[in-house]
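Design review, sub-item: ligand-bound model
Attendees: FS, YL, KQ
YL presented the inputs for the 6-O-phosphono-beta-D-fructofuranose complex:
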Amino acid sequence: MSRNSKVKRIGILTGGGDCPGLNAVIRGVTKPAQDYGMSVLGIIDGFEGLVEGRARELKNDDVSGILGRGGTILGSSNKGDPFHWPESKDGKIEIVNRANSALKNYQAWNLDALIAIGGDGTMHICNKLGQLGMNMIGVPKTIDNDLEATDLTFGHDSAVYVVAEALDRLHTTASSHHRVIVMEVMGRYAGWIALNGGLAGGADIILIPEIPFSWEKVYDKILKRELQGKKFSLVCVAEGAKPKDGEMVIKGTDIKRHDPTQLGGIGELVAKRIEENTGRETRVTVLGHLQRGGSPTPFDRILSTKFGTFAIDLAARHKFGRMVALKGDLIKNVKIEDAISHQKLVQPNNQNVIAAKAVGISFGE
Ligand code: F6P
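KQ shared the predicted structure:
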């Protein structure tokens, strides 16, 4: 479309793994649409719906009462990358490029812009669809908080809340039974959930991918705590954490996904090694998708609402190829390509790492 023409119709989709706050963004885009003189088309199941032509109109009534609802009313998928589309042929999966179908549907629906809510996989796709001529606007979501160019993604705070609450619960039972309890959390290659959840929930040991750990240091911490009269320990381990002399633990691979690697299993390994090497009774809890389900926290509801309302305003101002981003206290916009230049990982001198160490939390270094 020409830069001077008015944006009258926008599409919206939620891509990748879900997280709390998606509905609040959809509401934040749809409610103000009328004031901008725009109509909103909700695309079903993320990019899958864009390729397959599945969508429905979104009106005020459709988004009423969804602010605190988890998941996404539009559905999502992490297997619908138009540039990496899994097609079944003779009982086999073949990866093909269906970007043309995505573009055709965008044109057939008369969209002037498309707001895509997602993590790094979604932003990579947005960038490529933008190069095909689609007017893309990104909204950064993921519990992992690993997207560059925004201080935070929405969904992270809600996941951290779940982790902290789980650690509080594990604290009482670990202490009653004088046990070590290892809790594995999500986060892919970034340790943000383990770091922030572990700090908020008072873990004794936090293991993250960015700080490869020494087995000996982990055992030492548990035994030292015992000498101080603490006969239990809580270990919060990120699914991507790895020992200095080892690799990340991979649960499986799925070629249909943007990132085929599925992490998982480090919690079991850490628990087994602790029990074998310290002789202390050890249990493991894998928090899994509990971190992604349920209601967003008030912080995430507010952030998502601001992201959504800002995204529709960007569309009205023809700011395409941009992603909304939190910078300090303000919502700004950045180039989508800046958000995907590299993954945002925990730096060893991060203030939360420093604070955690100051209160005696070990990173197994
Ligand atoms: O990116 C979000 C996330 O929850 C990661 O933390 C985790 O590794 C992955 O998605 C799990 O994906 P799935 O829901 O497909 O098992």
